[in-house]
Amino acid sequence: xxxxxxxxxxxxxxxxxxxxxxxxxxxxxxxxxxxxxxxxxxxxxxxxxxxxxxxxxxxxxxxxxxxxxxxxxxxxxxxxxxxxxxxxxxxxxxxxxxxxxxxxxxxxxxxxxxxxxxxxxxxxxxxxxxxxxxxxxxxxxxxxxxxxxxxxxxxxxxxxxxxxxxxxxxxxxxxxxxxxxxxxxxxxxxxxxxxxxxxxxxxxxxxxxxxxxxxxxxxxxxxxxxxxxxxxxxxxxxxxxxxxxxxxxxxxxxxxxxxxxxxxxxxxxxxxxxxxxxxxxxxxxxxxxxxxxxxxxxxxxxxxxxxxxxxxxxxxxxxxxxxxxxxxxxxxxxxxxxxxxxxxxxxxxxxxxxxxxxxxxxxxxxxxxxxxxxxxxxxxxxxxxxxxxxxxxxxxxxxxxxxxxxxxxxxxxxxxxxxxxxxxxxxxxxxxxxxxxxxxxxxxxxxxxxxxxxxxxxxxxxxxxxxxxxxxxxxxxxxxxxxxxxxxxxxxxxxxxxxxxxxxxxxxxxxxxxxxxxxxxxxxxxx
Length: 527
Prior knowledge:
Largest sheet: 9 strands, mixed
Shape: globular
Radius of gyration: 25 Å
Number of domains: 2
Strand content: 15-25%
């Protein structure tokens, strides 16, 4: 009997140790520190142009699950204060380079995976929902509103949900209702990306720690303005001063946060427009803050202009060739993959290679970044570095403006293992270095170029599929023009065939009457 009792005791001690270890690692067991709030993390992020023929399938999304998700949030490192403030249950985060609409099957698959992972550790005190806000799904309006509603149905009405978004996202009343706390970036380019996400987490934890629950009031104001990010950059006026008003709007007692969403211009859906939201526990202060921000936005609508000088591609190239400033950067804006363009429109590179200046080896040095061409890549890999290639690339997805481009030249680099492109090839044709990728890839960082032996800082002309320049390119520019090129994210919105956005809408209806800019109080998620 003593032997049986001994082994029984050992068994229960081992079981207890195993349970405790699983709990500390965020398993399906409740974590051991019951004084901390139990908080989940989940999200889906993509920006989708409905004016692009491209579709964003599941293989376009990079997924992180469980503890791997902490890498997405520098403020949740091992020794961070925020990590210690809660027992965390990271579920899944799926993000993709902006592109075309998401097929319904892909959307359902991603949402199902997230819900299944969230369900394993129910219930939660809080949930941090990390979304972009401009995902388009074929046959479904307001995907983020649908997503958060399904999340809410799973986690229940008592769970406090804090949502962070891109300022180019769209906020419907359904999304606003199911988000107890909501915030967005305040800078474009988004240099405050992590600061914003940390603010969303801090707002959530503070409410949970103090036992304050859901904010009593949420004010929502749709503003009928639809402008591209390249006209609303916070680097320049009027957006700079407009967004500087947000911290002031949150100063009154009873206002927790305030946000201005510019909205996403390249999707034709009723939800696409600017939005103001504020929330807190003082009805009058929350309402006043929202209405003042909405009026400020509306009053400067006619002052928005492009963040850089703009020109046709021909005019931009003429200026670049004549300039002695190095590097002279040209934004190929109409097919910007980080705004939702297909990324494989060949019109610009075709026009560049027609120019006599770049046909000569000793012509102005030029980098073109980039054009996807999986068949071109396969042939280049077979030939190898130093070999001559004559093949076509691009226009597999969006061939509305030009056919595949013929690239005939010397293969100067082949790089495998790129997270987005998979394989990258540099081909020298005349005085131009053309970057070809297996899968589309935006070129935002100096390292993207130097990894394949190119130095944009010392290249005469750098042409990048981008709109406003991200910080690293902006910092090295000696001069810059945004070429108004065609594509799924055409900066000339009037050239796009909108059919479903709400009208009247500025700037399409410049003489429209002043809209109703009174705050609409959104019911709490349990009402």
